[in-house]
Amino acid sequence: MVILKLLLYLFVLVLVVFLAYYTTKLVGKSAGGKQLGKSIHVLERTGIGRDSWLMIVEVQGKVMLLGLSPAGIQQISELEDYVRPKEDGEGDKSFLAMLTKQMEEGQAAFHRQKNDRDK
């Protein structure tokens, strides 16, 4: 009898964890995880205060700087000469190259300190 109760509690626990996982996935998808608009794209967004944001958006080929606040949305300017930033990994150096360089510099500094202590 005790084993049946234990199995029932275990089943209920697994069910609750599964439902919590499924619910968070469902809510995450409906919270705007994907951009479905074909002519409106948010290029960049940054917070400038507790409830204020600056956004660079592209609407039908025009790039605009927008200000968002609890008072509403305002177009600040149209950016005619906007250059899109490079995507991750398109920079001049890869992460691996930068990490290797930093590790080599760190090892060289460590060996210099060790040699200075040994003298």
UniProtKB/TrEMBL annotation:
The chain crosses the membrane at residues 6-24. GO terms for cellular component: membrane. It holds the Pfam family FliO. Keywords: Cell membrane, Cell projection, Cilium, Flagellum, Membrane, Transmembrane, Transmembrane helix. GO terms for biological process: bacterial-type flagellum organization. This is Flagellar biosynthesis protein, FliO. It comes from Eisenbergiella tayi. It is found in: Cell membrane.
